[in-house]
Specification:
The protein is about 25% helix and about 25% strand. By secondary structure, it is of the alpha+beta class. The chain has 2 domains: about 110 residues, DNA primase, PRIM domain, CATH 3.90.920; about 160 residues, 2-Layer Sandwich (Alpha-Beta Plaits), CATH 3.30.70.3300. The longest helix has 19 residues. The radius of gyration is 19 Å and the shape is globular. The chain starts with a strand and ends in a 17-residue tail after the last helix.
Length: about 290
Amino acid sequence: MTPITEVDGRRLALSNLEKVLHPATGFTKGELLHYYATTAEVLLPHLRDRPLSFLRYPDGPDGQVFFAKNVPPGTPEWVTTAEVPRSEGPARMVLVQDLASLVWAANLVTEFHTPQWLIDDPGEADRLVFDLDPGAPATVVECCEVALWLRERLAADGIEAYAKTSGSKGLHLLAALRPTPSGRTTEYAKELAMEAEKALPRLVVHRMTRSLRPRKVFVDWSQNAARKTTATPYTLRARAEPTVSAPVTWAEIEECRSARGLTFLAPDIAPRLRDHGDLLAPLLDPRHAGPLP
């Protein structure tokens, strides 16, 4: 029998709670739901008012993994949805605005991916993002070196950067912006990626060509495009272990000496929140948003 639970007055059917989703640690769907419910206070502000793209892995990372952007079949009527403009025509997408919607979406077993703009102003970016992706044998250690360079370069333009792990191999750098057309934000990000390659030629590549990436860090500037999304802070990732896209301090980046040193699993997040709070909270505060130069 499928358990029925009530979350903030909404009745939810939660299925397959004993299913192992992350086989390296035996992490179950029930544990996944508990993680999202207990992390909701910091996760929800980063999801709110941003149309959600689901990367679903209902049978774990070794099963079928697929992206879904449109409202899934069977979505409860109380889940907020909105029409989102797209080049191929408007689509209706989910907005996770509250705890009940978060638990419902988590029950689908999904990574949460969101754009750099809010639903009230589509295509006007309020965040800048760089995805630092290492090409083997480079690791997050090399990403940290690049992140420190980008942090200083952004600071020179009056932009304060914050960091999180991707939850996979690399790092994400983010900054709060006053609303700026996504096209302009993308241009600026590409300019800085090219500068990084010029300054660190043995370490950085800004082009997407995969043959150029081994031993280097790809500074992916393209996720600033209006149509692109990035893994949301605190989302679990479809990996063998329940890795999290976890905010990190600059001290942790400066001190990183091994890939494992910046790997955080679901059970690590509650202690980190007790120690640090939400390290990305400034992204939610308009006072931290600045203009592009």
